[in-house]
């Protein structure tokens, strides 16, 4: 598979760069966030002033100008096109029962802040106890069930604040 990257600068300029083009750059790190780049006999000094590795965005300073740069590979673009990016996956606003069962233990209450993967409640289904965890960081807005309640599949159980 051709290894190329889509680069966007200041949300206005788009271009693609291949792995071969990258290998033709002569880049030397001069300090922790500073680089000296030589391409086609042209010298450029660049400094990364901000970096958000999870979103692959960087603030780069070149010749006293600042540029916001985002970098995506083919997989990043495919995931975004499918609507499965991490940003959209974490925007879950409610928890519904994944199956019919019985609420054994609630571990949260309305107004409580929870972290991703904190246990919200224990659901007994088919004689098995299932620990249901929070899909994101957030604050519990409301809880529609209590200990001992029988629930149906897709029944609203917990709602998060936006």
UniProtKB/TrEMBL annotation:
PROSITE patterns according to UniProt: BIOTIN, BIOTINYL_LIPOYL
Superkingdom classification of source: Bacteria
InterPro entries assigned to the protein according to its UniProt record, in alphabetical order: Biotin_BS, Biotin_Carboxyl_Carrier/Decarb, Biotin_lipoyl, Single_hybrid_motif
Keywords from the named record: Biotin
Domain Lipoyl-binding: 79-161
Protein name: Biotin/lipoyl-binding protein
């Amino acid at each position: 598979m051709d290894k190329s990257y889509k680069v966007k600068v200041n949300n206005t300029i788009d271009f693609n760069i291949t792995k071969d083009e990258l290998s033709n750059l002569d880049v030397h790190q001069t300090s922790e966030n500073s680089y000296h780049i030589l391409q086609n006999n042209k010298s450029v000094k660049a400094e990364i002033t901000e970096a958000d590795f999870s979103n692959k965005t960087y603030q780069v300073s070149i010749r006293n100008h600042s540029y916001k740069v985002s970098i995506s590979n083919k997989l990043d673009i495919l995931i975004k096109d499918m609507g499965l990016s991490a940003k959209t996956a974490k925007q879950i606003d409610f928890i519904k029962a994944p199956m019919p069962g019985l609420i054994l233990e609630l571990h949260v209450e309305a107004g409580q802040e929870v972290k991703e993967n904190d246990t919200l409640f224990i659901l007994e289904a088919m004689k098995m106890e299932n620990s249901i965890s929070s899909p994101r960081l957030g604050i519990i807005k409301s809880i529609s069930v209590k200990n001992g309640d029988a629930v149906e599949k897709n029944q609203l159980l917990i709602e998060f604040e936006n």
